[in-house]
Amino acid sequence: MSETTVVPGAATTTFSRYDDVTAALADPALVPLPAAAPAPGAPGGDPGTVAWLRAAVARFSSGEPHARRRALVLADLERLDPDRLRVAAAGGFESDIRLRVVRVLAAELGLADPEAVARDVATVSRAYFTDAPACSAVDGPVADPAVDPAMDGASADPVADAAVARLLPAMGDRDEETAANRIGLLVQACDATAALVEGARRHEDGLAGVLRTDPPVRTMRRIAVRATEVGGVAVPAGTRVLLDIAAAQAGAPAGVALTFGAPPRSCPGRSQALVIAEGILYGASDPADTGTPPSTPDLDKAELAALVPEMVTYVLALAVGWTAWDGRPIVNTDGRTYAPHKAVRRITDHLVDHLAEVEARLVGEPTEPDHWHASSATTPADLAPFTTVDLDEARSRLTRLAGIWSRRVAALPDERLDDSPGTGWSFRQIVCHVSEAGYYYADSVGSLAGARGGAADPAWVTDSPTWVTDSPACATDSPADPSGHRANEPMETTR
């Protein structure tokens, strides 16, 4: 589909079919709107201004200058290690995702003061795309057809100019064109990658769903430098072309995301943007290696704070019947061995483990290395009789832990629940995870209210220590823990 609309200064033709959009992106007659190049000495013409920056970067150029400048960007991108990017992105503290994205890139590029660079880049980004408010990972802001698209030069913004002036020497390269395109790389990533993360948090299918059905890049723009034709529609020289990426994506082949454009000007930073987004969303490890993250129902903070107390209430209700346990280890449906004391041990240790993780991450300290034996061992203490005194002790212990969790969650700033500092799952995911795991451990023992009366025979347990250590089914369960999440490893995988 195409339509021509008239706006002040030029005609604009819009394409929204997938085949037309990709054809337009590949057409050498259709190029990005160029930035005006101010003369040296003229306002904005000297190095260190937004106007100078726009005139010096690959984004606003075409032909040989674009190829040369794109090569500079690619050289910088090739220096970035994906695993390091993911880990760095997972460890951010900024509530402003834009600052987190730029800080990660600046640090991995070896720039001297990533925090200051991030602040200045965020300032520049508001003026870099002066002629429209929305942001694109490839082309920057999208032109509003109601706004004059002929605004090729950056409007005066002394604060943004001052930020460019600081960024130029901060790029660590005496060649001004190289430094300009390094700044351009950071500016291009700033709002665009943040929009990708924010969209993924809203979408039920996360990052993949955003790319497939709701790309943050809604449109791209081109101008015809000579007459051409797209999808049978004549495009005279000088015509502004608006490409409706969101509409075209609906007709894209499976697995094709137009968010990052299409050849020959596909976004060179596609893989880096996705890795950073994954790090922010899922933690330090590649999501493919971490199994399925815990489900996170749409709960407000009060409801989230109640999850652990609700789980503990359920556990303690079951545990009332555990005093009737007959001393025989219980093998659950996953083939793992449990007993009342072991279930209480795992629930308690798991709550302590993740509470320590949350507290360490909140103050920016590394988490404690994981040395838990978890469910991989069944100890003699696990097989001790579970008495009414043990039930009382478990009630006191777990009730207090549940209170700590409830108060900690209630005290967290709302933005920390999903944009959590440090490496690992978000705090919302952790709360849901410890709650789900608690139910699992308790249900592995189940309700014993109808079991043989009385506690286990102490002599049977204490006089047969070799049974505990020699039985593979009891002493050394499967090395995989049902929780599926190690709290104090960089990203919890399997136990």
Describe the 3D structure.
The protein has 495 residues and is of the alpha+beta class. It has helices at 18-26, 50-56, 63-78, 82-90, 97-108, 114-128, 158-170, 176-202, 206-213, 245-249, 270-282, 301-305, 307-319, 340-362, 388-411, 414-418, 427-445, 458-462, 465-470, 472-475; strands spanning 2-7, 10-15, 30-31, 219-224, 228-230, 233-235, 240-244, 330-331, 337-338. α14 packs antiparallel against α17.
Number of strands: 9
Spatial separation of the terminal alpha carbons: 53 Å
Give the proportion of residues in helices: 40-55%
SSE string, helices as H and strands as E: EEHEHHHHHHHHEEEEHHHHEEHHHHHHH
Helix tally? 20
**Outline:** elongated
Strand line-up in the sheet with most strands = 1-2-7-4-3
- State Rg: 29 Å
Q: Tell me what portion of residues adopts beta-strand conformation.
A: 5-15%
> Would you tell me the structural class of the helices and strands?
alpha+beta
**Contiguous uncertain segments of 5+ residues:** 3-9, 131-154, 285-291, 451-495
Output mean pLDDT: 80
Largest sheet, in brief, is: 5 strands, mixed
List keywords for this structure.
elongated, alpha+beta, five-stranded mixed sheet, disordered C terminus, 20 helices, 9 strands, 495 residues, single chain
